[in-house]
Amino acid sequence: MLHAKAPSNISLIKPIKRNLSGVLLLDKPYGISSNKAVQIAKRIFSAEKCGHTGTLDPMATGLLPLCFGEATKFSSVLLGANKTYEATLKLGFLSTTGDAEGEIRQLSENISNPTLSQCELVLNCFIGRIMQIPPMYSALKHQGKPLYVYARNGEAIERVAREISIYAIQIKSLIDNELQLVIRCGTGTYIRTLAEDIGKALGYGGAYLTQLRRTMIDRFDLLQAHTPSVLETMDIAEKNDCLLPIDSLLQDFPVITLDKLAAIHLLQGRIVLSQTDISYLSKGSIVCLYDHQRQFLGLGIITAEQKIAAKRLLANSNSVN
C-alpha cells in the first residue's frame, strides 16, 4: 500500500519544552486575551508551564506579569495588588460593553465640552473608598455563569454595589470631549464602570473607554516590560535575562533565613524553629524563606508556638548543600 508522503516543509519533530522558572513582565498588545498572551509567551520561551497573574481585557494594553514554571505557585499574590492605568474617556457616549468593543450611541449633540476646572472638581469626588456596581460585561459569576454570558444573550442581572478604593486620578489631557486620565486604584476596580460614572457626574450622561493601558501593578512598572514582537527577536540567553526571579513577587512578606539544619528539616516536612527573633510575627503570618546560602525556598507560615511550617515550597528545593 502506498502512503502519502508528508510535505517536506512540515517538521515532524516536536519542539523541546524548557523547564524554566521566573517572572516575565509582558507588555500585552491590543486585541488578545490574557490567555492568548500566555500561549504566545509559552511558545516564544519554549516553556513547559506558564500562567498569568490576573486578566487584562483584550482591548486593554500594557503590563501583564506572567509566571513560568515554579513561579506559577505564587501567581495569586498579585491578584489583590494596587494598579495604575492610563484611560481615555469619550464623554457624552455610551457603549454596551463600556469600551470601544461594544455598540456605541451618542447621548446628546448639543453639550459643550468640559473645562479642566470642572473635571478636576468632579474627579475629586471619586477619590477614596467609593461604591461601584460591577458591569454586566465582566467575569463575575451568577448561578455559575459569568455575567458576560447573560449580557451577550440580552439579559440583565441585578448586581450588588461593592466598595473599591481610588487612590489618585490625574488629568493627563483634555481635548474637546476626550478626557485622558491616570488612575491609581485598588483591586476589584472596573475602569469601564468608573469612566461611565465620571461621564454621568460631569453631566454628559455617561462615557466609554476608547483606550486603556495598565502601567503599574504593585511595584512592577511598564518600563520594565517587554513586547512579544521584541522578545521574538531575542536569542535564548537574552530571553532568559528578561525573567525576574520568583521571589520578586514576594517582596512584601517578611524574610526569614534558616540555618542549614532547619532548612533540611523544613524540606522534610517538619515544623522548625527560627534562629532569628520572630516574636513580632503573629500566628498565621506568611513569611518568605531562604536557606543559609540565600537560596529561595518558598513561603512559610508562623504557628501558634512561634515556629515555622511550610506553606508553599519550590519543587526543586529538595536538597540543601
Q: Could you please say which CATH topology of the largest domain applies here?
A: Pseudouridine synthase
Structural class: alpha+beta
Strand percentage lies at 25-35%
CATH class of the largest domain: Alpha Beta
Q: What is the strand tally?
A: 17
Description of the structure:
- The protein is of the alpha+beta class and 321 residues long.
- It folds into three domains: 22-77 and 220-248, 2-Layer Sandwich (Pseudouridine synthase); 83-106 and 114-217, Pseudouridine synthase; 253-313, PUA domain (Archaeosine Trna-guanine Transglycosylase, Chain: A, domain 4), CATH 2.30.130.10.
- Helix content is 18%, strand content 31%.
- It contains seven helices and 17 strands.
- It has helices spanning 34-45, 116-124, 147-152, 191-201, 228-232, 236-241, 260-267, and strands at 22-28, 50-52, 61-68, 83-91, 93-95, 104-106, 128-132, 141-142, 145-146, 162-175, 178-185, 207-217, 220-221, 255-257, 286-290, 296-302, 308-313.
- Strands 1, 2, 3, 4, 7, 10, 11, 12 and 13 form a nine-stranded mixed sheet that branches. Strands 14-15-16-17 form a four-stranded mixed sheet, with helices on one face.
- Strand 14, helix 7 and strand 15 form a beta-alpha-beta unit.
- It is globular.
Main attributes of the structure:
four-stranded mixed sheet, 321 residues, 31% strand, 3 domains, Pseudouridine synthase, Archaeosine Trna-guanine Transglycosylase, Chain: A, domain 4, alpha+beta, 17 strands, globular, nine-stranded mixed sheet
Explain the layout of strands and helices:
Elements: E1 22-28, H1 34-45, E2 50-52, E3 61-68, E4 83-91, E5 93-95, E6 104-106, H2 116-124, E7 128-132, E8 141-142, E9 145-146, H3 147-152, E10 162-175, E11 178-185, H4 191-201, E12 207-217, E13 220-221, H5 228-232, H6 236-241, E14 255-257, H7 260-267, E15 286-290, E16 296-302, E17 308-313
Parallel strand pairs: 3-12, 14-15
Antiparallel strand pairs: 1-3, 2-3, 4-11, 4-12, 5-6, 7-10, 8-9, 10-11, 12-13, 15-16, 16-17
